[in-house]
Each structure stands twice: as structure tokens, then as C-alpha cells.
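## retry 2 of 3
previous attempt timed out at serialization; input unchanged, resubmitting
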Amino acid sequence: MLNVLSLVSYKILPARVGGQKGIALFYKYFSRHVQLTCVTTQDNDPKAAEGYEVLNILSSSRLRYINPFYFFTLRKIIRQKQITHLLLEHPYYGWLAVMLKWFTGVKLIVHSHNMEGYRWRTLGKWWWKILWVYEKWVHRRADFNFFKQDEDMGRAMRGFHIRYERCLIVTYGIEWDHPPSAEEKKQCREWLLKQHNIPAHHTILLFNGAFDYLPNINGLKKIVEDINPLLQEAEGFEYTIILCGRNIPSGISSKTYPNVVFAGFVDDISLYFKGSDIFLNTVTEGGGIKTKLVEALGYNMNAVSSVNGAVGIDPNLCNRKLVLTDNLLSDFDKAIVRWASVKADIPAAYFDHFYWGTIAEKAARFIQTGHA
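## retry succeeded, writing output
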């Protein structure tokens, strides 16, 4: 069995939001195929890890990214545990990972969750190109490069000049390999109707995200300020929009909008996914794959999304459950009304692609044999 050491430079445990789950759940299933040890920051809870060892020895200070003494600590761990592969989450600790590769002989895997330089470019940061050059330097020195979706991998191959044989799509996944039953969805819907005093005949629309992230805030504003007023004018369409997630800005949540419920952070988001009818994805900025959209479709919801917000999710895998629109101001509301009547089910092919068990097995096979 391969001996893998992962390097995670921020809090992921316990995993509560999409980015944290994207690592913690991948490790849960990946560790069934490799011997995995995760080195991470002190604010992580090792008891929350499933199937792998956590050494939370990195400082949570911003200065951790330039601390040269971590080289000696990690080199010792690599030698003691006879590590064969070093898995780097995000490129920020690239200098450290490359040094460890040079001085210990481990194979380096760089797991890119976004094209970070490109993502910061879309967010208007002047220094994006510096990060892009650094990111390129790190990826070119990796033995294997993991990406979340095809567009990121293609951009890296062209911009970083890395070979296809060294690249693999390791998408965000879900832990279930079939959709919930009709009875389960019915029970969750009834719970939502009662919990939020929603009329039984309403179509329930859901938007969910962490609102300490600007693209999610902008997506939320599009819903309450632009799309909701248009839906108000849709003849014969009766609906309720539920907005879930932590840190909804008070400037928005303190206002009253027709047909809008602010649920905030909820303990069990799966109840909302299973009980709602249509997932709204109005996020147009940032990079990577939108984890909530993956989950929503896996719960057999219909989904209306911006084109950019659905990157990494092939509509052909979704059996008409996913509709894309470029224009959030004139087309999005019309797509919502149309897709309220779509009764198709998410197909088995969707789970073949997005089930964590399949994703992790493919990743382990790739680094062991060089073939997916």
C-alpha cells in the first residue's frame, strides 16, 4: 500500500463547508486505498478525521507559509513513516513541498482546487499574475497534478506547459451513490412546509452558501434584488425562496423581501436539499467546481445555474435536471418557471462520476500505476 503524507495549510476538521468537505471526504475514501497521514494546522480537530491520522502541528499564524523550520519537521516525518508520496492541497506551500521532494525523493502530487491565479484575477486582485507564475512553478515540479474539473486542467496544461499524462480530474464528490427515494423527499418537503410556514402548493427554491465569500454574496444579491422581483411578475407561478448559509450580511437579512425566507445556518442541510424543488446557482465569479450544485443534483433536485457556476458539471450527465443560462437578468427567472415542471430523475451515470468512492479509487490507482 502507498504511504502518503498530505499537507493542508488551513482548517478542514470538523468539515462544515464545501471546501473543507472536499478535502476531508476525499481523504476518508482515499485512505481506504493508501496509508494516509495529514499534516495540518493546530485549529483542526484530529478526532474528526475518518480513516487517517492527523498531525495538527502547523501554526495557524499567517507566518506559517514562510516558516523554513517546517522543512526539518516534515522531513523527519517522511523518513520515520517511510512516505512515498507527498500530497499538497493548493499551491501556497509549494516551495516547501518542492524542497521536500528534492531532499527526500518523495513523489509530489499537487491538488489544485481552483486555478488560484486565475480565480484572483476574476476577483480583480492586481497581484494575480505573481500568484500565477508561482503556481506554474509548483505544478511543473509535481509528478502528478490533480484538478477539480476539465476547464482548470486544460488551462493548466496550456498555461503551465504540463503533460496530460501527469494530470487527473479529482472532482468534488458526494457520499451517496443513488438519489433519495420519493417518500424521503416527500417527508422532507412536508417538514420544510411546516418549519417555514410555506403554502403546500408553492415551488420551493433553494440557495445555499458560505457568505464570507464575495462571489456567494454577489449571487445572493442577484436573487433578492434582481431575480425575485422578476419572479413576482411571472403569471401563475407561486413559490418560496429559502436562503441558507452562515454569515448572511445583515444589510440583506434585516430586510423583508416577498416570498423569501432567511433560514441562515442550518444543522442538517440535506433536509433542505431533499425537500426543495429547484436549486438556484447565481454565482458567476471565482473558479473551481461549485460544490453545492453537485450536492443538489445528487439529491435529485432540478437546478438552474449560470454557465460559469456549472463548470465541471456536464449537463449530459444530468438527464435534463440542470439548465444553464448566461443572462441572469432576463433568462434566469424564465428558466426557473420552465424547470419547475421537469420531473426527470438524476441518472446512474451522475453517481458514477461524482461518488467519492469511485473518485478516490481512481486517484489511488493513478498515482500507483500512472493510469486512471
